[in-house]
Amino acid sequence: MRKFLFVLLFIIASLSYLFEVDELLVKKFTFFNDFKITYINKFINISSSVEKHFNQATTIEKLTIENNELKEYKILYTTTQKQLDAMKEFLVHVELTQLKPKIELVKVLSYINFNDFTKVWLDKKPEDEDILGLITENYAAGIVVNKDGRSVGLLNGNKESSYAVFIGENKVPGIITASKTQDELLIKYIPIWAEINKGDEVITSGMDNIFFEGLKVGRIIEITNLPDMKIATVKPYVNVLKKKYFYTYKNNVQVPKQVEVKEEKDSKKTTEKK
User: Fold this and answer.
1) What pLDDT, on the 0 to 100 scale, is given for residue 226?
2) Phi/psi at 61 (nearest 5 deg)?
3) Burial class of 72 by CB neighbour count within 10 A (0 to 12, 13 to 18, 19+)
């Protein structure tokens, strides 16, 4: 019965459109037109809502995928950031383009002797017998030497660690070395005529081809006058014994050592002739 009624209604609707009954109904009965417009608007709204729903579902799916990727990147970022945080204090921000130096990050492996904290093994294979500068941030930390094919860090305070420095604004020269006190350094071979004062800043001079000029070391806290030279006591800016990472500095400008040897030989020959 229901099937028959549905078929009958379908035939009536078809015949109505066929004989333009729909137009007549719209002209005679305006509420049919209102109903039609309402139906169309409802259909459009429902279609838009369905489309919007599916678009939202697609967007949510894309955002979920992107969120998962971002979580992976966040984990990677966090891991990398922790590594960078552990090393960022050792970064050196100095303009050295004109010297074209070689700077490498090195890690302290262990003490060489347990009764000497100023002498350490470094995770760097030496390339030659050159002495390298050891840097932490913008401070001089010591030197690096080659011992049996392994890099040894001689930190500030080690009796074998020495390098050339300037004192104060007048750039008075001297050689820094160890002191009897662990938290202090000494500057020897200061010219007796040089004017230096307590509080003068000490920087590397670069005259030894180990460092470049300008790395900070510390400040003068005491001056001792000897018959042939002055000795200054220095309070270092940083405690290098607590550091786990350093930078090694190598100046690629080679000093002509053969010329120096030849000059020495020539001077010896001249002395012998005399």
Assistant:
1) 93
2) -65, -45
3) exposed
